[in-house]
Structure formats: structure tokens, C-alpha cells
Amino acid sequence: MVPIFGGRYWTVFSTVILIIPCVWLGVAIQNTATPYWVFIVIALMCGFAGANFASSMGNISFFFPKSRQGSALGINGGLGNLGVSVMQLIAPLVIFLPLFTFLGVHGVPQEDGSTLWLANAAWIWAPLLLLATIAAFFGMNDIASSKASIASQLPVLKRFHLWLLSLLYLATFGSFIGFSAGFAMLSKTQFPDVNILHLAFFGPLIGALARSAGGMISDRLGGVRVTLINFIFMAVFSALIFLTLPGSGSGSFIAFYLVFMGLFLTAGLGSGSTFQMIAVIFRQITLNRVKQEGGTDEQAQHEAVTETAAALGFISAIGAVGGFFIPKAFGTSLAMTGSPVGRHESVPRVLHRLCLCHLAGLWP
């Protein structure tokens, strides 16, 4: 959408519209008779947050040279991913505060004498979204040369590298989002005596900070090299996690927690290094293709920038699928077998092995 509407206007729209599901969610959770379909619609509207993130990755690629793409994309993506950790840290705190009583909101008394204001977890973001919208409107710029139609962006879907790199990003960013959503649930089911509420946010925090580092390191050492080494560690951590679960024994929460932090770390590093690869690889293959077809240097540069931005947006959206797939796999395994291990290979381990095979073909 950035090449069509411009980075500034699309960011303003996709930010301000998020106020609607935030306010609506705060109203819906106060009524126990709210039907399930309402929450589905709210969740779909929250998808504009993903569109905002994906478009920001494509937009920022226009502003930085190839040598700094990894750092720029890593910092932008890391700050975006930081929202997961902030949400998991702030939400459990604000629901105990009477922040919106001036709107007539009444808390729900608990058995221990405390009072919960669940609407706060949604409404607290509305004023921040409004400030972000104003900042984007007055502080962002559009690049006229980045304009492109939908038709000119769709050919990128025919590129083999788009689907290959989508798989790599699904295994890294998808793992980060999936682990962020499923870590607390998995901890609670396997270690019910441990209060995970105040510890869960550390994982997404580590992953978000690591993403920035992954992009910077890749600019210096090369994205393929960093991503390959990172996937080896991801595969090792994915295997180790099942050795820490209770199973037939007592398990070890400390070991489980530390190994999971390692998974968050490598998922973040891999997200940064994979996006550096996307920017560099697509720019180069597009330049080569246009020149082989007899295009001018100016045409080659324009198409390289356009296709790179389109690829970053598409791949970013595909990677978010992991946010559904991984928690669903854990939940299905628990329901069918009573264990997150199940009778089959875990989804993360299968993904990481596939990606190791693909990366071996990209190694220079």
C-alpha cells in the first residue's frame, strides 16, 4: 500500500483506524453476553496493526542504502516487536487501576478483595494511537519516486526467492510471534505452580532487542551467514525445550525458562538477519534481471527499489501466520495427547530443519 498511497498517508490511516477496535474491545469485554462473532470482528480489525507493521518495513527501505538496510530494518522491526513485550508488561498492571472511571466504567470485584477494570487493557492504547497518528501526519514524508501501482507490484509474487525467503521469515518472525502468544499458556499448563504472569514479557523483550542486533550484525558479516548459524541454534533450542518439560518426571521450570529465552533470542536475531537478506537479495536480482532485459540503469534502480519494498511487505505479512500456527499446534497437541510434544515432530523443529536445507543452497 505504501507505493500506492505513500508511506505517510497509509501510516496515518492504518494507525488511526486501530482506535476503533481498541475502544470496541474495551466495551465488549465489560458485557458477558457479548457474542463470539463480535470478538472475531474486533480481531480482524486489529489486523490493521499487522498491515501497519508490514508497510513500515517496506516504506523504510526507500530511505536507506543497501549497506545500511539491515540496521534500518532491524531497528524498525525491533521497536515494532517491542510492543508485544510492552503489552504483556503493562496490561496486567493497568487492569487494577481505576483509570477510566470518569467514563462511568465500573470495576469487577474479585474474591480476594481486589477490583479489575479489564477495559483498561484495551483503552490505554487509544490516546497513544492518537498521538502516533498526529506524529505520523506531521513528521513523516512521502517519496514521489516510490509510487507504483498494484499491477507493477504483483509480479514479485512470481519470484522464487520471495517464497523461499518467506519460509525463512516464517520460521523466525513467525516463531517470535507464536512463542509470544503461546509461551505463557505453555508455561501455565506444564508448570501450574509457577506464576508466569510477571515473567512472560521478558521473552518478547529479548526477541525485540535481538532483532535490531541481528540486522546490524548481518550488515557486517552477511545475512546468509548469520541466518544459517542462527537457525542451527534455533534447532538446538527447539529440541532442548522438550527435555525440560515434566513428561513422566518433574521437569525443570528454570531450565524450561532459560531455553525458551534462547528461542526468543534466536527468533529475534533471525528476524533481523532474514530481513537484511531480503533487502539485499531482491535489490540485486532485480538489478540483474532488468539489465539482462536491456533496461537502463535508472529503470533498474527504480524497479529494484519497488520490488524490494513489495517483497518486504508481502514477506512480513506471511511471517505473521506463525502467530496463529504455533500456539494452535501447541493447543491441538495438548488436547489430543495431553502433552505439547505429542506424537509427531514439533512445528518449530520441522520449520527450522527445512530452513537449514534452503539456507545451505544460498551459502556463497
Automatic annotation (TrEMBL):
It is a multi-pass membrane protein. InterPro entries: MFS, MFS_trans_sf, NO3_transporter. SUPFAM superfamilies: MFS general substrate transporter. The chain crosses the membrane at residues 9-30, 36-58, 79-105, 117-139, 160-184, 196-214, 226-248, 254-282. GO terms for molecular function: nitrate transmembrane transporter activity. One of its GO terms (cellular component) is membrane. It is found in: Membrane. Keywords: Membrane, Transmembrane, Transmembrane helix. Its main location: membrane. The keyword Transmembrane helix applies. Gene3D superfamilies: MFS general substrate transporter like domains (1.20.1250.20). Belongs to the major facilitator superfamily. Nitrate/nitrite porter (TC 2.A.1.8) family. This is Nitrite extrusion protein (Nitrite facilitator). It comes from Enterobacter cancerogenus. The gene is narU_2.
